[in-house]
Write a structure and sequence with these properties.
46% strand, 4-stranded antiparallel sheet
Length: 125
């Protein structure tokens, strides 16, 4: 199965930006819908954004719409999440997930087939 590795997390001040990256281990990554999710302590995994295999139809949770941008480069087997205007409520472990579907994206974590180990994002005020 494809292996997913997230990177780019860190400690930032409110209002700052981070760019997260999800790297797939092989070319099957480019056939999957990729989603970004986050999980704060004591809370369930929350949808952030997803993108089709074509790189089209990006979709965002209301909490990040207008601040985050998801994109993918299938030639490099990567999906990035540009995170702007971060606030403390964005603090969480961020995960990328792969869904084995070309045309049916999902905002439900339980409908994704593969996961990375996550990268920590901490935002202080």
């Amino acid at each position: 199965q494809v292996q997913l590795v997230e990177s780019g997390g860190g400690l930032v001040q409110a209002g700052d930006s981070l760019r997260l990256s999800c790297a797939g281990s092989d070319s099957t990554f480019s056939t999957y819908i990729i989603g970004w999710f986050r999980q704060a302590p004591g809370k369930e995994r929350e949808f952030v954004a997803h993108i089709l295999w074509t790189g089209m139809s990006p979709y965002y949770a209301d909490s990040v719409k207008g601040r985050f941008i998801i994109s993918r480069d299938n030639a490099k087997n990567t999906v990035d999440l540009q995170m702007n205007n971060l606030n403390p409520e964005d603090t969480a472990v961020y995960y990328c997930g792969a869904r084995r579907s070309w045309t049916r994206p999902s905002a439900s974590a339980n409908e994704y087939d593969y996961w990375g180990q996550g990268t920590q994002v901490t935002v202080y005020s």
